[in-house]
Specification:
alpha/beta; TIM Barrel; 8-stranded parallel barrel; 8% strand; two-stranded antiparallel ribbon; 10 strands
Length: 453
């Protein structure tokens, strides 16, 4: 379907959703997003033109189902996958992708680094994915040049072009980490925790030159124009611990990302802004408000944030608390955190756990934001619970398999089919059953007489 849409645009010098939106054109991708989100196509077009909504949709990813990231849409969730030097199976990464999509991932980032077959892995992921795929190109650049200090401007543009041809729909570019900020960074407890940020800083400090992604930013925008690739302007100076949260280096970089946002918009390139990783609960709202001001309302995309530093093994829970709050305050997309955060490369089960924690966070925020229809399933599952419709409860749950599995540990399959009682309390103490029986036996006519007299 999408391949037919794209054919119309191949003669255009600029092929971005923002370009068409600003020229009053509602693209097929905008219509699709409008239908999925229950919005008017004109509202979607207006928000894309304004930069408050992006539709990452590389024209080379022809089987992609378009999706929107912005405040007028439901909160989105991204899942990170990727191979490393010690784990680089194509099949394993495709399985992780499929698991992420099964449990509701709206986008997936391939963060492969150090693997010998990165192009093959990325190609397989994109071929198997109906959702947009994002990357951090400097990972592959560092791998191919061997020593990051040898990286040239030409290397950057070559890898970007290669990944664009494969169908990557958004790039994370750490272009806001400027040389003048390095003395401030040196005062931090944990320095630079962003892998892409640290690689970029290493190059800058070795050559005593400005950030290369900042220097050739206009050339990067030209590639994005050609393929309709969105930029995820990376937070190379995101805090990696609560001690460094909301410090000067983080906020100064955010101001630079605002400058880069305007430069991207001048070339009709879609932009979202990446946000901090470790932030105390009481600082989340301020961080969101500052991004909205400094970056002119561009969609905010955050990792977590983690609201504590001591949750190793449970960081998917600690960060989901921050994620729900961040989305309520104005974040448009959440990047999941798995139980393996800080500890190791996530496997398929970790992907499932991370996705479910973040779907819960996103859904809770959408209810609080009063997104039309957000609470529909919640109301339906409440009806199913009260009437002991177990199969309907499983259907409506975010993870039907897990819900059924836990239920059947208490009540075997042959029992629950007829069970008109809660599996936690049993028939004698089930509050639903007690209430229903009491209401059925109550003499309503006598009750009315008493109160009418």
């Amino acid at each position: 379907m999408r391949s037919e849409w794209i054919k119309k645009r191949l003669q255009e010098p600029i092929r971005t959703q923002m370009y068409y939106a600003r020229n009053g054109i509602v693209t097929e991708e905008m219509e699709y997003v409008a239908k999925v989100e229950n919005l008017s196509p004109e509202l979607v077009r207006h928000e894309v033109a304004r930069g408050r909504l992006i539709i990452p949709a590389n024209i080379k990813h022809t089987h992609l189902k378009p999706m929107g990231i912005g405040r007028v849409t439901k909160t989105k969730v991204n899942a990170n996958i990727g191979a490393s030097a010690v784990a680089s199976s194509v099949d394993e990464e495709v399985k992780k992708l499929q698991t992420a999509i099964k449990y509701g991932a709206d986008t997936v980032m391939d963060l492969s680094a150090g693997a010998k077959n990165m192009d093959e892995i990325r190609g397989a992921i994109i071929s198997a994915s109906p959702v947009p795929i994002g990357t951090v190109p400097i990972y592959q650049i560092a791998d191919e040049v061997k020593d990051i200090r040898n990286m040239t401007y030409g290397d950057i543009l070559r890898i970007l072009e290669k990944q664009a041809e494969q169908g990557v729909s958004y790039f994370t570019i750490h272009a806001g980490l400027l040389l003048r900020l390095m003395p401030i960074v040196a005062q931090r407890k944990m320095g630079i925790v962003s892998r892409g940020g640290s690689l970029t800083a290493s190059w800058m400090l070795y050559h005593h030159k400005e950030n290369p992604f900042y220097t050739i930013f206009d050339d990067i925008l030209d590639i994005c124009q050609q393929y309709d690739i969105a930029l995820s302007l990376g937070d190379g100076l995101r805090p990696g611990c609560l001690y460094d949260a909301s410090d000067k280096s983080q906020l100064e970089e955010l101001k630079v990302l605002g400058e880069l946002t305007l430069r991207a918009w001048d070339k009709d390139v879609q932009v979202m802004i990446e946000g901090p990783g470790h932030i105390p609960i009481n600082q989340i709202e301020r961080n969101v408000r500052l991004e909205q001001i400094y970056c002119y309302g561009a969609p905010f995309y955050v990792l977590g944030p983690l609201v504590l530093d001591i949750g190793a093994g449970y960081d998917h829970i600690g960060s989901a608390i921050g994620a729900a709050m961040a989305a309520w305050f104005g974040v448009s997309m959440l990047c999941y955190v798995t139980p393996k955060e800080h500890l190791g490369l996530p496997n398929e089960e970790d992907v499932r756990e991370g996705m479910m924690a973040y779907k819960i966070a996103a859904h809770a925020a959408d209810i609080a934001r009063r997104i039309p229809g957000a609470r529909k399933r919640d109301d339906e599952i409440s009806d199913a619970r009260y009437h002991f419709d177990w199969n309907r409860q499983f259907e409506l749950a975010l993870d039907p398999e897990r819900a059924r599995e836990y239920h059947d540990e208490t009540l075997p399959q042959e029992v629950f089919k007829e069970a008109e009682f809660c599996s936690m309390c049993g028939p004698k103490y089930c509050s639903y059953k007690i209430t229903q029986e009491a209401l059925e036996e109550f003499d309503w006519e006598e009750f009315k007489k008493q109160f009418s007299s």
